[in-house]
Amino acid sequence: MSPEPTPPGVRTERPLRADARRNREKLVAVAQAAFAAADDSVPLEDIAREAGVGIGTLYRHFPTREALVEAVYAAELDDITKSAPALLDEYPPDVALRAWLDRYAQFVAMKRGMIDTLRAGWASGRMATPTTRERITGAIGTILTAGASAGSLRPDVDPDDVTAILLGVFLSTAANNASEGATWRGGDSGQTGRMLDLVVDALRPRTHA
């Protein structure tokens, strides 16, 4: 059977050639590292040079700085949400949860380096508003379900409550570091790690004497 024709006025996205896809992935990876080390004000020429392509190639994939920031954010969100099943394959659920929380902390730190651009893009409608909280909560739910089945995590916890607790942890540690004039990039003097340890302890089954 022949494929149905595309309706008039409807645009279809052509798949990228292999070399173009590699260039795009390299640009996103370099931008991720650059934004993590500083913020999203890094010159685009530097990103193109580090990726081994010309600035014209960068602009073909990402016509604006906002487009590149959006792609980096989307890649980070994909990485963190898709890592939950992989960690469960490698570790017991409670250990996987603690490892995942460290990755989530890195994601939150990365977001801070792009937050002004992201907020402006979302507010103007130039960027699609991502379903970040829903996807993060879904990843947490995956780990909690596995932990409940294994008996290493409580079965009576709402994943959305855990998301809310984590946001409180990160806001608190960010505020503390800001008051001390420090810049938090996924870690601090140890407060974040200690608080995440407490979160995991609270999610383990209760024991009674």
Topology summary:
Blueprint: H1 18-37, H2 44-51, H3 55-61, H4 65-90, H5 93-112, H6 115-124, H7 132-150, H8 159-179, H9 191-203
Query: What would the average pLDDT be, to the nearest integer?
Result: 85
N- to C-terminal distance:
69 Å
The CATH class of the largest domain is identified as: Mainly Alpha
Name the poorly predicted regions. 1-13, 178-187
Going by CATH, what is the homologous superfamily of the largest domain?
Tetracycline Repressor, domain 2
| CATH architectural grouping of the largest domain | Orthogonal Bundle
The rough form would be described as: elongated
- Our estimate of the beta-strand percent is under 5%
The percent of residues in helical segments reads 55-70%
Largest sheet: none
Q: How many distinct folded domains?
A: 2
The number of helices is 9
Q: Might you state the CATH topology name of the largest domain?
A: Tetracycline Repressor, domain 2
- The SSE order reads HHHHHHHHH
- Derived from helix and strand composition plus strand pairing, the structural class reads mainly alpha
Could you tell me the radius of gyration in angstroms?
A: 20 Å
The strand count comes to: 0
